[in-house]
Amino acid sequence: MMGQSIKQAATPPIEYTLIRSKRKTLSIQIKDGELIARAPMKLAKREIDRFIESKRGWIEDKLTISKERTARRNAHEMTYGSLILYRGTDYPIIARYGGRAGFDHEVGCFFIPPNLAPEEIKSTCIQIYKMLAKDYIPKRAMEIAKDMGLTPSSIKITSAHKRLGSCNNRGSINLSWRLIQLPDDLIDYIAAHEAAHLKYLDHSNLFWGVVAEYMPDHKKRRARLKELQRRLYAEGW
Questions:
Q1: Which of 82, 191, 213, 225 has the fewest CB atoms in 10 Å of its CB?
Q2: How far apart are CA 65 and CA 73, in angstroms?
Q3: Are 87 and 201 contained in the same domain?
Q4: pLDDT tens for residues 119-168?
Q5: Do residues 157 and 175 share a domain?
């Protein structure tokens, strides 16, 4: 009796978004559950496919983790009674009649009008965060810069998502409103980090020396910041 051969199904190719630019190397990135390949303008598509296939195991593992994180983030719904961070402490969101929204320092709560949909609750809380950030962060950042013997030309509050802070060669410091969610010592860390860029616009040893001179425990603060950022990402901030 002749043996029968079993034909195995071909492994489907990995889907990805290709971005070509004037770069010299090929790189891959996983973002929000999607694989992105960044390639030189003239690199053959088959070479890109071959490279991605060689990384299949790593890519599949990372895609699974990224998709799970994205799903949890999208599923997080803001409601009345939800706890959200302000300067490192969780406070509830409560409904309060009168058409106004804000933060009640005496009671310790975010108050917003009733009967808002989840997306409206979130957008209202963001407006409160921005108000609180403008009231506290620039003044505190200026104090830290002066303590370090440095003087920024300006300090502005932005809506930057991934970069909590930045500094340009004109001496202007930009700080995201999202900093107001962090504990005061982590707000101070970001402010000191950006103030140090007034002296060195890089991350050289000289730069870190300036940070360490003012804040010897900056490495511990940086580690805590990364942990907290994972929570804030999961909550959709």
A1: 213
A2: 12
A3: yes
A4: 999 999 999 999 999 999 999 999 999 999 999 999 999 999 889 999 99
A5: yes
